Structure formats: structure tokens, C-alpha cells
Amino acid sequence: MRIFLSLTFAVLSFLFSTGQPPKGANLIIIKNVNEDSVTNVLINAGYEIKSIIAHNIVTEYKNVNSSVRVKLNVRMKEGNAYLTGRVSDVAAAIAFGYKNADDVNDPIQNKGMKGSTYRDSWNNMDKVAKLIGTDIEYAIEKK
Asked: Which domain of life does the UniProt lineage start with (predicted)?
């Protein structure tokens, strides 16, 4: 029984220490960072800063590939960055007759198949988060 409990604890510890984002995650929390370093990382990653108001950094949309555009939002609070984003699928917007593709957007979430709009936007946001810092948590933010 004691060996079973030890093995169970070891397996559970491994599963929860991998830091893998849960399906549907839409929030990445980067701990122990400051606003200036976050802003610099966003600029160096090719994002244009739209505004910085009350510790909230908002970017303009950036092309991730020929069809996917991503806009990031970072809320700074108590030394942590709370990263969320919006994704726009240019091809879908054109197909539905929208003049401005950015008018058709969804929250970035950890979902979708490889190569999909959702997966590409999530991978981009996750990559930016890892450039900002290494102490990262993933969450599902209810709105």
C-alpha cells in the first residue's frame, strides 16, 4: 500500500509540474516581471503598442501568418503580467464579406488543431509569454 501511494504521488507530481496549459486556457500569468520589460519584449516581438493606460498594455493587431492576426493585452498587477489576446482570421472575414478583418475576432484560447487559426494564435501568445518570463501559469479566465 505504501509503495502504491508513493508511486501515485510521484505520477501526480509529474503531471502537474509539466506546466502544460489546460484545454480552453485563455490567460497566461507571467510572474515577477515589470511593465518596462514586458513592453520591450512586445516591441522586440514585432508588436506595435496601441496604448498603455493604468498598467494595461494593448497592442495593435499583428500578422502571425497570411491569415491570422493577433492583438495582445497585458494587465500588470503586483509584479505579474496577465496576458490575454484576440485573434482575427482574415480569410474568414473576407469570405463573410467584412471590409475590416479585425472587426471579426475571438478570444485567443488553447484549442484547435495544428495549423488552425486558434492553434496558431495560441502558440504565438504562448511564445511571447515565454519571452517575457519563465515563471508561467495558465488559467481559464471566466468573463
From this structure: Bacteria
Phi, psi of 112 (to 5 degrees): 95, 160
Indicate the domain borders of the chain.
Answer: 21-139
Q: Look up the pTM and report it.
A: 0.84
**What is the rounded distance in angstroms from the CA atom of residue 52 to the CA atom of residue 36?**
11
Fold of the domain spanning 21-139: Alpha-D-Glucose-1,6-Bisphosphate; Chain A, domain 4 (3.30.530)
How far is residue 128's CA from residue 90's CA, in Å, rounded to a whole number? 21
Residues 86-89: contacts with CB within 8 Å, 24+ apart? 87/117, 87/118, 87/121, 88/61, 89/117
Question: pLDDT for 12-37, tens place per residue?
Answer: 333 333 478 999 999 999 999 999 99
Radius of gyration, alpha carbons of the chain? 18
